Amino acid sequence: MPGGGDNRGMTAPAPAAHPHPSSLFDLFLSFTVLALQGFGGVLAVVQREMVERKRWLTQDEFIEDWAVAQIMPGPNVVNLSMMIGARYFGLRGALAALAGMLTVPLVLILLLAILHAQFADNARVAGALRGMAAVSSGLIAAAGLKMAASLKRSPAPLPWCLALGAAGFVLVALLKFPLFYVLLGLGSLGCVLAYRNLR
Description:
Blueprint: H1 24-37, H2 42-53, H3 59-71, H4 76-119, H5 123-148, H6 158-174, H7 179-198
């Protein structure tokens, strides 16, 4: 009825579709391009590509998937690529994403290994590699700062999140504890804190 507030004949506009890969080839090509950008600092690249550019994941989804990828055996970004591929295309998607992450980079790495064997003693080559390592560290730090904003929405209290992060840095970077045991101990503590708050 006009002016009567009766909306029975009206439907709300459908929400915008979540962007996603259009095909298995799109998935393969996207992860190939991502892998070729990720020499030494893939976390920053994958966060920018998946969240900001392609928007296949929200920031929260990315952080959740990245956390799972880190505790699984194998390279983190390879685990993440398979999780994203499986989310959209099941097993075929996981295999396509895996192939994208590994095929072309594997060929390039083999070629670079041959070149490095010939020029490893060159001082300019060694200096260039050290410079690349410094740039990679900056990229990883920048990605970490972007991801830190989501701590405000974490089920665990923010002070505890910061304390766990600081403890992880001290144990791994300064005291040289094995990463597996640090993840097992601090990760379990973080899960317990989150669970208690969710209850």
